Structure formats: structure tokens, C-alpha cells
Amino acid sequence: MALPQKPSKANYIWRMFANHAATALAVVSTILVVAPLVAIFFYLLYKGASSLNLNFFTKVPAPVGETGGGMANAIVGSGILLALSSLLGVPIGIGAGIYLSEFGRGGRLANFVRFTADVLNGVPSIVMGIAVYSLIVLPQKHFSALSGGVALGIMMIPTITRTTEEMLLMVPNAIREAALGLGVPNWRSVLAITLKTASPGVITGCMLAFARVAGETAPLLFTAFGNQFWSANINQPIAALPLQIYVYALSPYDEWHRLAWAGSLVLIVLIVVSVALVRYVTSRGVLKGAS
Amino acid sequence: MERGNSAMTDHGFRWLMLICALTIFAIVALIAWELFVRSQLTIHKFGLSFFVKQAWDPVNGNFGALPFIYGTLVSSIVALIIAVPLAVGVAVFLTEMCPKFLRGPLAFLTELLAAIPSVVYGLWAVFILVPILRNDINPFLMKTLGWTGFFTGPNYGIGMLAAGVILAIMILPIISSLTREVMSAVPHTQREAVLALGATRWEMIRMGVLRNARIGIVGSIILGLGRALGETIAVTMVIGNRPAIVKSLLGLGYSMASVIANEFSEASDDMYLSALIEIGLALFIVTIIVNAIARLLVWAVTRGAPPRVA
């Protein structure tokens, strides 16, 4: 750092100017970042709320040209897909997290698994879609809700694994030792003591993963495929909210655009509520029982 | 008896958890294997020339992925050019300047940006962003920067620039939240030392914080790049979906992810399908490499490695 020999007036003014300019730039960039967010929410509310009505939640899509119709089947379909994906993703994710924190801690295998989880987290969702397509849809020769659930479930695993591991690592060792000292078998100590203590944090991780896959469209394009009618059969193509929004947004019909806005509003409310819930829970202290 | 049982269940439990952990590894391996096997046709027929050819002619079975690679790269670079300064600005503001009562809500807002689904970004881009670009921003760019050749040609509204802008909005939160994390990891003594020498706040940030955190910041930028390369739905909705290489950013393009999204379900013959899956394989490999580099860089800073003082 080269300081001038004699602090000159010009130098002082320049430094103060740079300081204020930097502050101003930081403030401006923050405003520029928040602006699209506000704009997106404004338009969602403005365009979505006016199109939301009871029909939206109770009717299936109307044929082209007819007004009315809703996305009831897509909402139910998304629910089924998310239930399937949670059934797959949550147990495996938590199990892997337990392994990383309780059994493999510091080992080479654990580091490798952790790294693989990060890599899996970065795999583009469309690639996940074609991989599951060739794994499940091609051998079965038909699209199905099941394959969509598998694709989403795989995408949940890395987030859940990493948060579970982080949360379990925050549990003090004294609690584990106390349980083992009382003669509790290790597996019970892990499940009933360690995991239980960290459960608010672990649930947070599951909710974040859930919120992330709830809005995914790309992996469903060639797996769940979408469906204009009621279907709760997991062996058949099934409608999903994000898929329906995608199709409707690209259609040339105003009526469908309206429904796409309404669907987006429903989707975003679902996601924002779960994220806000997560934030509320975590801000109240993740490990209340432990510390 | 009791003890023997619980020792066995303990062992079983340990194995079960290990299997869960290994599943993650198995999934990644399986994805790679499936993509590799299903793209054998084009890998054998075209070899590496697949990635440098411009032709995309499903009818005659002639495939080259260059226009898609070009579209993906250009839209991602545009996104980074827009997003990086803003993301670093937000991170600087939130960690170093922001009054305490604003920090929580603002951090929450930027996190919310990350929670918005891609399809909602796409919807917003199609109906709000594209008209703004077409009516206001693009004519302005054509008038002032038209001489560079990057802003010429017919003004559709959709195109590379629209894709870049929406990508920038989407990758902002990940870059800014990681940059914030890295900046908070810089020890306070660094800041105090610079301040004690009489530095202004900006000089403190520049010399004490940004310089120490630069490796991690580069890592977070690369992670954002990884996200941008693989983003599908929002890009598909605004990039124009035409397999051509055009210098102008206002021109229509196509990206690797969006060609898969658009054409996969109509790919009738095996060669066509194989070509699309090979594009997926390339995308998979590239994002893995990009993510691995980024993670290593971020880890190097946040994992207690002593920050470099230059």
C-alpha cells in the first residue's frame, strides 16, 4: 500500500469521493436487485389475484376457446408428485446425513460422498429429466407420475443430506455420551437423541428441498408429462402445476395466460409460506433443547 | 441375549446409513452411465466433430451442437456481466454498510429471489420483461451501441439479451449469498487493521475484505455460472429457439438445455434422440467440472484456511 508522503488536499478529496461513490453504488445495486423481486410479486398479485376464483381450485382445464376451467388436477397432481418425491428423498437424504455426521466423520469416504452430494446438487434439472426418462420411462414405454416423483426425489437428496449433516454436527457430544452412558444402544441414541435434538434444523432442510422441487418444471417434461384430465394413478401421466403454467404461458390464448398467472401465484404462495416458516423456525434457535 | 441383539441392530443400522450415503454416489454414476449409453449412436457417428458442427438437421440425420453451445455460453456470459457487479454490491452493502435493522429483511428478500421457480421467472419475462426490452431498452441500445455490432438487426424483444437478463436475475441470489458468506469469514482483525491505518470505509472494504475474500468470490461466481449453464425453462421461454449463430445479442438463439426441453419429446428416430442425449451428457460433464472448481474455491476460503494477505 503506497501512501503519499504528504497528505494533500486533492488526495483527501479523492478518497472521500471514492468512499461515497462506493457507498452509493452498493446502495444502487441493492435497489436494482430488490426491484425485479418487487416487480415479480407485484405482477403476480395484480394479474394472478384477479384470475383466482373457486373454479381455479375445483375445475379441470377447459378445452381451447371455452372460458372457465381451472387447475384442480394440476394442484392434486403436484401434491402426489411431491409426496412421492418426499417418500424417496427424505429417508435417503436423512440417512446419508446421519452417516456423514455420526459414522463417517472426517473419513475419506465421507468427504467423497459429501462432494458427490454437492455435485448432484449442481446437475441441471433437465439432465435429471432425461436420465430418469431413459431409466424408467423408456423401459416402461410410458410416462408416469412415478418417474416424475423419482426425478424430483433425487433432486431433494443433496439438500437434505447436507443440512442434516450440518445440524447433527451442531449437537453437543455430551448429549451423545450421556445417552451411551445410560446404556442406550447406539442406533437408538442416534435416532431418539441426536436426530431428535436436531430435528427443527433437519425439518428446515427438508422444507427447503421441498420448496425447491415444488417449482421444478424441466425434470417433469419427459417423466410426469402432464395431463389435461383427472388422474391419481401413479402409473399414468399426471398433471403438475409448474408444467401447466409452462404450457399455458407459451400458448397463444389470453384465457390460458390468465390461468398461468393464477397458477404462478398459487405456486409462489406455497413456496414463500414454506420458506418463511423455515426462517421463523430457524430464527428461534435451531437447537433449543441442546444449548 | 439383549446385548447380542442390540450389537446386531447397531451394526445393521450403521450399514443402512452407509447404504443411504452410497446411494448418492450410485445416482450420479447411474446418471452418467445412462447418458453415455444412450448417446452411443451419435458419439460413434460424429465423434468430437459433433461439438464443432453448425448443422442441426433432424430430417437428414445431420447433427452438430455448436449453435446450442454458443447460445448457452453467450447467454451465461451476458448474465454474469450483469449479475456479478450487482451481486458483489449487494453483498458489500449487506455485510459492511447496512444498518442492522435492514440486514435481516434485505437478506430475506434476496433469498426469496432464489426460491421463485424458474417457470414463474419465465412467465414474468415473457409478459413483462420482453415488452420492456422491445419498446424501451433495445431501441436505446441499438442507437447508442449499434456500432459495436452486438446490438443490431430486427428487434424481437426475445433473444439472447432477454435470456441473459432473466438468467442474471436468477443467479444473483446464489452469487450474493455465497459472497456474503465468504466476506463474513474474513476475520475482523483485518478490517480493524486497515481502519487503524486511517483508511476510509471503502478502502477498508477494498483492501481488508474484498482482497482477502477474492478466491471465495470467484468461487461463488463460478457456481452462479454453473447454475446459468443448466437453467432450462426460463431461458427456453425467451431465447427464441432458433439454432443459429448470430453476433447480435438481439438476435434469436438456442441453448443446450432448451433444445432438449423443446425437441426431446418429438425426437422420433434413434439418431435424433441420441443427439439430444449427447447434448445432455455434455451439459452434465461441464456443470460437474464447473461446480467442482467452484466448491473447491469456496471451501478454501470458508473452511478456515488462512486468508491470503497480499
Short description:
The complex is a heterodimer of chains A (291) and B (310). With 291 residues, chain A is mainly α.
Structural account:
With 291 residues, chain A is mainly α. Chain A has a single domain, classed as MetI-like fold (Orthogonal Bundle). Helix content of chain A is 72%, strand content 0%. Chain A has helices at residues 9-49, 54-58, 72-103, 108-122, 125-140, 145-169, 173-181, 186-197, 199-214, 241-249, 254-283. The model of chain A is unreliable at 286-291 (pLDDT under 50). In chain B, helix 6 packs across helix 8 (201-230) and helix 8 (201-230) runs antiparallel to helix 11 (270-302). In chain B, strand 1 (56-57) and strand 2 (62-63) form a beta hairpin. Chains A and B meet through helix 1, helix 3, helix 4, helix 5 and helix 6 of A and helix 1, helix 3, helix 4, helix 5 and helix 6 of B.
Strand and helix map with partners:
The complex is a heterodimer of chains A (291) and B (310).
Chain A: H1 9-49, H2 54-58, H3 72-103, H4 108-122, H5 125-140, H6 145-169, H7 173-181, H8 186-197, H9 199-214, H10 241-249, H11 254-283
Chain B: H1 2-38, H2 40-46, E1 56-57, E2 62-63, H3 66-97, H4 100-115, H5 118-145, H6 160-184, H7 188-196, H8 201-230, H9 233-238, H10 256-263, H11 270-302
Antiparallel strand pairs in B: 1-2
Helix pairs in contact in B: 1-11, 2-11, 3-6, 3-8, 4-6, 6-8, 7-8, 8-11, 10-11
